[in-house]
Specification:
By secondary structure, the protein is mainly alpha-helical. The chain has one domain (3-76). 64% of the residues lie in helices and 9% in strands. The protein contains three helices and two strands, in the order αββαα. It has helices spanning 3-11, 30-44, 51-76; strands spanning 19-22, 25-27. It has a two-stranded antiparallel ribbon. A hairpin with a 2-residue loop joins β1 and β2. α1 (3-11) runs parallel beside α3 (51-76) and α2 runs antiparallel to α3. It starts with a helix and ends with a helix.
Length: 78
């Protein structure tokens, strides 16, 4: 997934204020996290050492999609 696709995805959804990326990592300001990671990837994405920034954005997208799917499933069972 490209940084442009991720940027468009995050612009098109309602974002939570905070979210756990994993058991040990809580993002307390999701909008700031996304903004800073997109800037970093655009500036340094060609450098392998910065690949983790793109990876974390993809991980966040996957988490948000899973939560949205779960919410939709919960709503349909009501």
């Amino acid at each position: 997934m490209t940084i442009e696709e991720l940027e468009a995805y995050f612009e098109g959804i309602d974002l939570p204020e905070s979210v756990y990326l994993n058991k040990a990592t809580k993002i307390v300001d999701v909008k700031k996290f996304i903004r800073s990671h997109i800037i970093t990837v655009k500036a340094h994405g060609h450098i392998k050492a910065y690949a983790s920034f793109l990876d974390r954005l993809i991980q966040l997208k996957d988490i948000l999609e899973a939560e949205r799917a779960k919410d939709s499933e919960d709503q349909s069972s009501i």
